[in-house]
Amino acid sequence: MSEPTVVIEEILRRSEQGVTRPFVCRGDDGVLYYAKGKGAGRRSQICEWVAAQLATAFGLPIAEYALAEVPIELVDAQIFPEINDLGCGIVFASRELSHPQELTVTTRNLVSPEHATDILVFDWWVHNEDRHLTERGGNPNLLWDMQAGGLVVIDHNQAFDPDFNIENFLASHVFADHWNQVFSDHVERDRYRTKLVAALAKLPDIRVNIPDSWWFVDEGVPADVTWDEIVTCLERCHRKDFWDTP
After folding, report:
1. In this structure, what DSSP letter does residue 175 have?
2. Rounded to the nearest 5 degrees, what angle is found at the Cα of 130, between the Cα atoms of 144 and 201?
3. pLDDT digits (tens, 9 = 90+) for 83-140
4. Domain ranges within the chain, ordered by starting residue
5. Rounded Cα distance, 231 and 208, in Å
6. Within the chain, how many helices (H) and strands (E) appear?
7. Which of 91, 117, 134, 237 could anchor a disulfide with 196, C-beta 3.0 to 4.6 Å?
8. Residue 61 to residue 188: CA distance in whole angstroms
9. CA–CA distance, 79 with 11 (Å, rounded to integer)
10. Which DSSP letter does residue 159 get?
11. pTM of structure
């Protein structure tokens, strides 16, 4: 397992947004992070870490992330309400952006077709249905960096969804209207398959880097996700029916 690259020194607040409600913390590098600990769920942490590294290998503009260490002294001091939900030990940490804005129907039009189809294909691959945005609203889990003028991908805690629904995905994904640009184009499909297989080759290293503690909710109680489940989902890219829809 990789050693944590950041040590959490200060807990500033807890986010009111998102199902997992991450903690905003300052690391020993002076950077602010959204940290997801045991209260977010072990499945959430594992899915975040695996999908984040695959997203990097795939070339998505994902927010910088790290394994961070929360010292037990920080938790024992109970200096912040609900700190037990963060817990001590290794957590998943995503770097806070300076000037973020949640992607909207308006700023969606600023996203390049390449980035849009990349995200659509990646979410299809990792069975991430949690990127909704239609004219009626939604939560795309995408940010628009106002300073850099670019898209930033966040939140993969619901990747590898065992209840992934193809119809819902195609109806509400933020970039669903790009579907035919890829899925009915055999040249594009072959190009993406090559990218997916290349990212898949990183899987053994990714597995080694998952903290051992994340595989258990409590002593002797396994997390509600298995490595085989993740691998089965990802290896679909080798199958002829990978692109099939109802």
Report:
1. T
2. 90
3. 999 999 999 999 998 878 999 998 999 999 999 999 999 999 999 999 999 888 889 9
4. 100-199+235-243
5. 14
6. 9, 10
7. 237
8. 20
9. 8
10. -
11. 0.94
